[in-house]
Amino acid sequence: MQVLLLGGHGKVALHMTPLFLNRAWNVTSVVRNPDHKSEILALGKGLKGKLDVLVSSLEDVKSASDARKILDSVTPDYVVWSAGAGGKGGPASTIAIDQEAAKHFMTASFSSPSVTKFLMISYLGSRSKQPRWMSNDDWASIVRTNTEVLPTYAKAKQEADEYMAALTARRKLDTAAGPFQAINLRPGTLTTEPATRRVELGHTANGHVTREDVAIVADQLLARNDIEGWIDLINGKVPVEEAVEKVAKEKIDAVEGEDVEGMVKRFFP
């Protein structure tokens, strides 16, 4: 399999890269800064898959056509979005990358003849309604973060996530379309501690999760064909493999409670 990894120098992506390569998948890692190329290529030494680095700024992706040019140069089977402005460049960069470029890559990927999976690394609090499984205190904390702490980031992520949900719903109605797996992995607050390999997955409380655990879960989700939708993630007590199996078996999708039909009407009136 060929994986296009967008935001390849991000901390989660740096953990994902060797996991993908160890499955004998080939990875093209997209980075903005050419100085990061050697660091990323070093991740592939001794592993089964082939690793390439593509130097390209996602801030320059202004349309689905721009995104399609990158897809056409790589012809990936799987596209993984692990990119973000990271607070650099102010609100304009956050909207340009986390929202607009993400949407352009989704548009291009969902219509690409080669792409069969799209995995988005998003954010647990990216939703408009309090889910039934979350406490009032947890939801109040999320609302505070979304409105007072990181309002531009929260707006951008929610716009991208809702667009992805709308695209997914439309795709399911297209009887001529081939199989397509759209996964929105939504971690809580990210930490830099080593992986615990123990998580709460699917419907979760608000909380923290290590970046390495996010990568481990993403790798396992992408390797399966029976999981899709919004999958929330924090560290917990359940071994990763067991948690992933439960999400698959119970068809858990944290988009539950959101107005997906309204999203479709908004983006595709």
Protein architecture, described:
The protein has 269 residues and is an alpha/beta fold. The chain has one domain (2-267): Rossmann fold (3-Layer(aba) Sandwich), CATH 3.40.50. 43% of the residues lie in helices and 19% in strands. It has helices at residues 11-22, 37-41, 64-74, 90-110, 136-149, 151-173, 211-222, 240-250, 260-267; strands spanning 2-6, 26-31, 51-55, 78-81, 117-121, 181-187, 189-191, 198-202, 208-210, 229-235, 238-239. The protein has a nine-stranded mixed β-sheet with strand order 3-2-1-4-5-6-10-8-11, sandwiched between helices. A two-stranded parallel sheet has the order 7-9. Strand 2 (26-31), helix 2 (37-41) and strand 3 (51-55) form a beta-alpha-beta unit. The longest helix is centred in the middle third of the chain and has 23 residues, at 151-173. It is globular and about 45 Å long. The chain starts with a strand and ends with a helix. 44% of the residues are buried.
